[in-house]
Amino acid sequence: MDTLDNTFSYILNYNNYIEDDVVRAFHEKLLRCTSFRPRELELFQHPELIEPVPKNETHLQVIYDGDVGLVGHWSCIYYINGILRVYDSLVGVLGKSQKIYVKALFPYLSESCIQFPSVQRQPNTIDCGLFAIAFATSLALKTNPSQFNYVPEMMRPHLLEMLLTDGLLAFPATSRRSPGRAPSNLFNNIALKLETNKQKQTEKKQKHRSQNSITSHSQNDNLNFNQNYEYVMEETQSIANNCTTMDAKRIKQNNRDRKRLSRSNKDVSIREKERNQVAKEVLRSNKRKKCHEQVVNSSLRRSKRLNLEIRQVEQERDTEAHRAARQDDEYRRDEQQRNTQAHRVARTDVRYRQAEQERDTEAHRAARQDDEYRRDEQQRNTQAHRVARMDVEFREAEQERDTEAHRAARQDDEYRRDEQQRNTQAHRVARMDVEFREAEQERDTEAHRAARQDDEYRRDEQQRNTQAHRVARMDVEFREAEQERDTHARRVTRENEEYRRNEQMRNSAARQELRSKQKDSWDLTVQNYLKNIKEGNTHPCHCCGNDPENETRCTCDADAIDEETVDSTEGVELNPGGTETLLDNNQDVIVLAPGEGQRPISLLFDEHLEEEHVGSAMNNTWVLSFNMLSKYCTTTSSEYRALVAEPA
Fold first, then answer.
1. Contact at 8 Å (CB) between 262 and 268?
2. Reduced to 3 states, what is the DSSP secondary structure of residue 152?
3. In 115, 164, 344, 481, which residue has its Cα 20 to 30 A from 180's Cα atom?
4. Is the distance from CB of 165 to CB of 192 less than 8 angstroms?
5. Which residues are CB-neighbours of 293 under 8 A, at least 6 positions away?
6. Banded pLDDT at 18 (limits 50, 70, 90)
7. CA triplet 204, 209, 213: central angle to 5 degrees?
8. Distance (Å, rounded) from C-alpha 166 to C-alpha 163?
9. Residue 77 pairs with which residues in a beta bridge?
10. What is the distance between the alpha carbons of residues 50 and 157, in angstroms, rounded to a whole number?
């Protein structure tokens, strides 16, 4: 009720023109309260869609003359018994649009059957709609509008009150007929005749208080006007009440039956739908009418949705319609763009954004309780992340973020320990897979081989390994276990004949190489010795004690050594605490000089002379000849010992 009040509140402004929304509301009231079926106003532009009025039917409605969106003219038409009466408060003729509309309503009616009764004229140029509704109200209430003068000052408030209440209410008016003149009878109704006679008798009693026109402003006219207005209002209200109470149900039932009967015809139903669609489009072409329709529809829809069943049915219809509409790709794209733009605008509000985040978090947490949903989400996220990482910039930025976050997290000792434990456990579990273990070994081997290309890295690694192995071998158990492993591994590998042959070949080659090195070392030693002999003695003679810096040659003669001298030195240790043989017990090589500060030993006094002979079975080696010892002693200074070698 408040919505309608606000919609039609402009009626109370005396400078406003009565719009079609008011006329349409009045027609709806006629449909509810009477048996009349006024046609749609919008169809005046489409007369071919207008449903004609049967000849034997009574018809009442307000029609319009003019263009859409402009101020036109309203008139009231009333058809009964083959006669069409046009009640016009301004010109008294039909306009161009009205003629077309009337011709469509009454195609069988000739111009001679159209009458223009004399009615009250409107006092201005904007109250035509107000008077047309007043004329139609009087006719619906079975009264003749030609016999009344309506009060313009009271018509607008009365119209608003009638639209906001149930039923029809007669407009405030006074009688237009002269005293003593009977009103013209347009209706064959006994009850109305009785009421007319009663009104006639009452008017005769009040002759001296009657007035000729409402335009007079004398004191007597005002008094008569008030009395007549009260009387007319009482009479018209009683008629309206009788009509409402006695015939309301019958009229409504007749309207429903008549409409149901007409709609049973398929052609009539199709034409009615087309007329309604065209009328609705014409109505919504007016911005003001469209706004009014939206307000009314919203109010009605809101009241209907209070019912739970209606709301559920409506939701199902909307969902199904929306699903069908989204089958169109263009519609779906446009909808997504609209939704995205609306969502972006809404998220500019901080409160809305926070509330949305809370809702999404709670909904996501509830959804992840389902294992299947969680697995599907993980797969989607993994796939999306894999696609995103195909971009080099994204991958580098992600690596920087992860590295920085991991570095910050590892500042915590507890976190670092937990991470190490997790990694160790995960690595242990992963290595249970043979393929993973083999692939890991290949990667490590390849990486280690590449790293060992660096000499510095290789030296450092060898030092680390040697140090670690030395420390480990300090443990007796570890050393014994290592020896057992090596022995067992060597024994197992030597069971292979090919490996054994290869090992023998390697050992032979190694020995030959060692002997070759020893030969080279021996040749070099001999060359150095012969060179020193040519340069002269470098040590005192043990026989005469000749000073090496003395240029005088040693006069010692090896032949002069007598047996007494030899016997005197027998059993005497020449170098106490030093070397008594040319054969070094530690290195198995021949030592040519005893060392700094020690006296050389003659081969005659060497206790291990026989061990210094190299077996003749060794090829390409040098052996000592004892036959040359005497020559050595007689020809060479006694302060040196010479070894003359010859091929075996």
1. yes
2. helix
3. 115
4. no
5. 283, 284
6. confident
7. 105
8. 8
9. 61, 86
10. 33
Half-sphere exposure of 577 (CA within 13 A, CB side): 2
Q: How confident is the model at residue 49 (pLDDT cuts 50, 70, 90)?
A: confident
Parallel/antiparallel/unpaired status of strands 83-87 and 645-647: unpaired
pLDDT score of 118 more than 50: yes
- pLDDT confidence bin for 270, thresholds 50/70/90: confident
| CB neighbour list of residue 606: distance below 8 Å, 6 or more residues apart | 580, 581, 582, 612
The token pair at 162 is 């009638």
Closest CA to 628 of 607, 645, 610, 605: 645
Give CB contacts under 8 A, 24+ apart, made by 309-314.
none
Contacts of the segment 246-250: beta carbons below 8 A, 24+ positions apart: 248/33
Would you state the structure tokens that stand for residue 526, as one six-digit string?
């001999």
Q: Is the distance from CB of 232 to CB of 173 less than 8 angstroms?
A: yes
Q: Which tokens sit at 378?
A: 């993980």
Rounded (10°) angle between helices 20-33 and 152-163: 60
Query: pTM to 2 decimals?
Result: 0.34
How far is 88 from 129, CA to CA, in rounded Å? 10
Say if CB 38 and CB 27 are below 8 A apart: yes
Return the structure tokens found at 490.
Answer: 């060597």
**Which secondary structure element, helix H or strand E, spans residue 28, and what is its range?**
helix 20-33
Q: Which two tokens stand for residue 191?
A: 């009850």
Q: How far is CA 503 from CA 210, 480, 497, in A?
A: 154, 24, 10
Cα distance between residue 192 and residue 198, in whole Å: 10
Helix/strand/coil for 65 = strand
Enter the tokens of residue 292: 């009014």
CA distances from 491 to 242, 478, 497 (A): 131, 20, 12
Q: Determine whether 590 is exposed, middle or buried from the number of CB atoms within 10 Å of its CB (0-12, 13-18, 19+).
A: middle
Of the candidates 126, 147, 144, which has an alpha carbon nearest to the alpha carbon of residue 136?
A: 144
Beta bridge partners of 424: none
- Count Cα neighbours of 238 within 13 Å in the Cβ-side half-sphere: 9
Residue at token pair 């006069």: 555
| Residue 410 Rama label (left phi>0; alpha psi -120 to 50; beta) | alpha
- Give the three-class secondary structure for 85: strand
Q: What distance in Å separates the CA atoms of residue 178 and residue 211, rounded to the nearest whole number?
A: 8
Distance CA 89, CA 131 (A): 7
Identify how many contiguous H helices and E strands the chain contains and give both numbers. Answer: 21, 8
From 68-77, 226-235, 377-386, the region with the lowest mean pLDDT: 226-235
271-312 residue pLDDT tens: 778 878 887 787 778 777 777 778 888 888 888 888 889 889
Question: Where is pLDDT greater, at 15 or 396?
Answer: 396
Q: Is beta strand 59-65 parallel, antiparallel or unpaired with respect to 73-80? A: antiparallel
Say which residue the tokens 């009103």 belong to.
183
Report pLDDT digits (tens) over 70-96. Answer: 668 899 999 998 899 999 998 778 888
Helix, strand, coil % (nearest 5) of the chain? 60, 5, 35
Q: Which residues pair with 149 in a beta bridge?
A: 174
Buried-exposed string 314-329: b where 16+ CB fall within 10 A, e elsewhere: eeeeeeeeeeeeeeee
Q: Which residue has the tokens 């609705």?
A: 280
